[in-house]
Amino acid sequence: MSDKIYDFVIVGSGMGGLVTSVTLAMEGYSVLVLEKNHQIGGSLQVFSRDKCIFDTGVHYVGSLDEGENLHQIFKYLGIINDLNIHKLDSDGFDIFRFPDGKTYKFGQGYEKFKEILKNDFPNESHAIDAFCTKIQDVCTSFPLYNLEEDSPQNYIDNPDILSENAWDFISSITEDPILRVILYANGPLYAAEKDKTPLFVLALITNSYIKGSYRFVNGGSQIAKLLTKKLRQFGGEIIKHQDVISANYENDHIKSVITKEGKEFFGKNFISNIHPKRTIEVFGEDKFRAVYKNRINKLENTISSFMLYISFHENTFPYFNCNFYDYNTYNVGDVVNYSKENWPEILFSCTPVPPKDSKYAESLAVMTYMDFNEVAEWSESFNTIATKNRRGETYEEFKRKKEEVILKHLEVRFPGINKAIKNVYSSTPLTYRDYIGNEDGALYGIKKNSNNILNSTINPKTRIPNLFLTGQNLIFHGVLGATIGALVTCFQFVDNKYLIDKIKAAN
Ligand SMILES: Cc1cc2nc3c(=O)[nH]c(=O)nc-3n(C[C@H](O)[C@H](O)[C@H](O)COP(=O)(O)OP(=O)(O)OC[C@H]3O[C@@H](n4cnc5c(N)ncnc54)[C@H](O)[C@@H]3O)c2cc1C
Fold first, then answer.
1. 54 in ligand 1 pocket by Cβ < 6 Å?
2. Is 163 exposed, middle or buried (0-12, 13-18, 19+ CB in 10 A)?
3. Could you report the per-residue pLDDT of 300-310, keeping only the tens digit for each?
4. Domains of the chain
5. Taking the model in full, what pTM does it have?
6. Hey, which of 11, 54, 58 would you mutate to test ligand 1's pocket, going by the most ligand atoms within 8 Å of its Cβ?
7. CB atoms < 10 A from the CB of 365, how many?
């Protein structure tokens, strides 16, 4: 136990927690980050098998071209020059394949993006222009996304923009059923649901990938490592294996947090990088107003995922400098609500960057949706590196069967793949639940719903005067979303104009 009273105690070392911690430490505050896991980074964590590094929650990241928002923020944080990143193909970084053999691509840069689509849909030039204009326009409603202090159409003054539905918008600009599908086909990046996903979520994410899509060589955990190094350089501390389970109060203010092992850490302010529902449990159900608790507890999470991690025999499987979205249906807006018989309706596959620019991949990561209910019967089990347990033989059998189904599908999309495979590993919604600490292994935290958007919007302030939130649930998810969310949290303590100017000055 330490008697030190930190200016900030941050619970969770995900992308949001780390960016918040470094930003505040750079402003001279004393900061302590507490992480329950063995590895720092939340969804930035990696693991290694057969000498291959596998990412668990970051396969590619957008907005990393020089001058783009994430590039600028990373430069300000002092990590851009040390990141080992690899740009995906400009003339097709995302490839969408359908059961009839048809293939479509997204290109990087708006010119390339339009050129490729217009080639595929020569009569839809107007709709493709309208799509690009609109998503860029929506992005200008989020001034911080453009590293601006304000904009004339700020979403805070014009909240209607938040309720526009993505699929409805796409349907309004084109009658072509296939173009509609293609403009929505990167949906797994935001767990797209036709009747719910707001246009702003599609816009912020699609725009970012058009503006510089990169893979992290040797995994996304390098972001966490570099941010940790920066935090320490600025006097901040980070302690692993600290599962925060409760808080002590003094006059309605939090005085300290307590870990599972009974350690106590004192602070003036506390920032939670964990899911808002779990935040309420940890910081005390009785401390939050019933209305707030009810609202948070009713929020739906995004669906979870099943991941397959494949290692290959040497020089057997090609490296692809792009991602594949293999659909078994043209009904892309409903694959989240898959039927068990048709599972998997979508497979997202990507080959991590091989060493020394080899033309062969060492491994492949494959993601598909999986509802938590499919693994509910093993939900009493808990298994992480920090707390090792086995979930039992029936669970292993479940995983094996799911792996087999996916491998069959992969053989159709990548003929010969099965011969190249050395080993197969997999993770389920339970894996994500246990490592990230949310209740159902949600891919991207709280679901944004265009029918009730204000309800699914999370404020960094809470009713407890010295408790604040950060991370993917504030504005949007992803490495970029959690980073922008972290800046929003920091604005509670650091003047926003001052901070934005500082980011710009660093570039
Ligand atoms: C399968 C998958 C694929 C993805 N692919 C991409 C991608 O390709 N590109 C992209 O940009 N984004 C991707 N994402 C999303 C992205 O990784 C996340 O949106 C982002 O990393 C979330 O950051 P966060 O700040 O919300 O923290 P989280 O990653 O949610 O981390 C929360 C942290 O809090 C810790 N914690 C929880 N409870 C406690 C406690 N009680 N005490 C102490 N610590 C605690 C957890 O251990 C964890 O470290 C993917 C996500 C998943 C799951």
1. no
2. middle
3. 999 999 999 99
4. 5-45+62-85+217-299+448-505 (3.50.50.60), 89-94+106-212 (no CATH), 303-443 (no CATH)
5. 0.97
6. 58
7. 19
